[in-house]
Amino acid sequence: MTTNKIRIEGKIFSAEGILSGQHVDFFVQSPFHQQLLLFLREWYSPGETISLQTSGSTGLPKQITVRKEKMAQSARMTCDFFQLRENEKALLCLPLDYIAGKMMMVRAIVGELDLWPVIPSGHPLAETTTTFDFAAMVPLQVFNALQSPEEKQRLSQVKRVIIGGGAVDPQLEEALKELPNAIYSTYGMTETVSHIALRKINGEDASGYYTPLKGVSLKLSEEQTLVIHAPHVADDMVVTNDIAEISPDGAFRIMGRKDNVINTGGIKVQAEEVEKILRPSIKGNFAITAVPHPRLGEAIVLMIEPTNNPDALKREIEKLLPRYQRPLHILVVETVPQTGSGKTNRAVTKKMAIKKVSLPDSM
Fold first, then answer.
1. Which is more confident, 286 or 170?
2. What is the CATH number of domain 265-356?
3. pTM summary value
4. How many Å apart are CA 210 and CA 183, to the nearest integer?
């Protein structure tokens, strides 16, 4: 299922050498390379499991234990889907604290790829001139690359790009449609050991729906949330908090999270839907959240950063949103809380909003 070696920057490192300390000189060149070594020692150790940390996008991060066999199966599914071949160059520019970075390493091991580590940052393509066959990036890294002609050119030369860790907003998606390479949005989570479905963003086969990988079956719960059955990568069914719509051919799209439904005046508002509409009008990070309200039950709150003008934004909102979706409060904060993987920290955002908002007695 897996090999006892890994190729990094064209050099082959054996499991035996990694465990015995033969290759230490190579891995001390940066703290990121040292993290690579630590993971490889854990991967090649006799234990059958690895501890993973969830991102904490809707609550506190937690540790889960996953069998290495499941991670290898997930890697094989991705390598097979993209027809990745031995010695093809793969860019690793994601932190190794979370599943996305770890799985890039496992894909390199299982698929016998040539892994090229670049210290994770907002501009990884500014730090390398190598042309890659495969790369995994977060939306912010892709967005930043498009702002620089040089980085945009390098991005367009990556044969296959997968984007995960957060939603690809409509503006970014539109900008990516002009690129000639194959770019995909991923759907998955730590509990499913990375992605279980992919959505093509550009090209003739671009789609608004995710297609499950081979061996993955889906259904909806009574609350219309997605339920994933993927025995190759997860021992049990994974009941998500993602409200979804499944088409007759098995493809699906995500409408938002169950925990992000705001019940205001008896009307259910999906926070992500409001954010999608407002995104082109707001600079920097922002979030839609809610606070308790004596009459409405919950009041919608828009949290923005100082680069925006609240008064001008309020006038714009009145044009864009129906009354029931409009924020009752607009809060300006120094920074909108983010998780370690770059997603909006919904739990912290809500707590901050509750603390800051002085609720009116009536509307």
1. 286
2. 3.30.300.30
3. 0.80
4. 13
